[in-house]
Specification:
A hairpin with a 5-residue loop joins strand 7 and strand 8. This protein has 9 helices and 8 strands. The protein is flat and about 65 Å long. The chain is an alpha+beta fold and 234 residues long. Helix 3 packs antiparallel against helix 4. It starts with 11 loop residues before the first helix and ends with a strand.
Length: 234
């Protein structure tokens, strides 16, 4: 286990072992920190990601730096990070200190130039984000905010929002996620079992209604109404 310690030289095998240990260690750290720090890079998340990346990267490029010290430091930082997250959840005052408030960019169809400057984004970036939301007219926007995680949230004026069944109090069926029963030419037997179906039924259905075999199916799903949708390899 000498590759943990700083040395004048490392063999090729020791470099590989150091890389493997670091990789597995970072996976464990990412699991402990949680998905929040990956999907929403707020101030606290950015700091911890930047520091941990630097700490682990150095022993992977300099044999004189030990891996053990970096791992101990990383564990200490993760404990501090989790403590900070708990503090933010527990005490609103700390939340205001570490998490910035949303910045208003658009209000009632009017662009807030001061908000743009405060968020340090250009009008081009704002228009790009609106296009991503399929909005071509700024005046259709009731409110747009620059969120602490760097995302722009957009809320349309009520008269421009799409009509839904709820608008007219229409009855709808509960949401049901279709089950995947074939994936890349292989049957998902566990899903079939939950549906009280067997392999024979599936093979026969494919042959009679879709004129194909299991190995030709890229994806097949079935919904609560037993409607089978089949996507073949092209």
């Amino acid at each position: 286990m000498d590759f943990f310690q700083g040395q004048e030289t490392l063999t090729s095998l020791e470099w590989i072992l150091r890389a493997i240990v670091s990789y597995v260690f970072l996976l464990v750290i990412a699991k402990v920190i949680g998905q929040r720090s990956i999907s929403q890079l707020r101030l606290l998340d950015f700091v911890i990601a930047l520091v941990i990346g630097n700490i682990i990267a150095h022993p992977l490029s300099d044999e004189e730096l030990g891996l053990k010290g970096s791992m101990i430091t990383t564990v200490a930082l993760v404990i501090l990070y989790l403590g900070s997250v708990f503090t933010i959840i527990r005490w609103p005052a700390a939340r205001k200190l570490l998490n910035a408030s949303p910045i208003e960019l658009i209000k009632d169809g009017q662009i807030n130039s001061k908000g743009l400057k405060k968020a340090r984004i250009s009008i081009d970036v704002l228009l790009e984000e609106l296009r991503k939301e399929k909005i071509s007219d700024v005046q259709q926007v009731a409110l747009s905010l620059w969120e602490p995680d760097g995302e722009i949230s957009v809320f349309l004026d009520s008269k421009y929002q799409p009509i839904t069944p709820a608008t007219y109090n229409l009855a709808t069926e509960p949401f049901n996620l279709p089950k995947t029963i074939i994936k890349e030419g292989k049957i998902e037997f566990h899903e079939l079992q939950q549906l009280n179906k067997d392999e024979g039924w599936l093979i026969n259905t494919l042959k009679v209604h879709h004129h194909t075999e299991v190995r030709n199916v890229l994806l097949a799903t079935i919904d609560r109404n037993n409607s089978l949708k089949v996507f073949l390899y092209q």
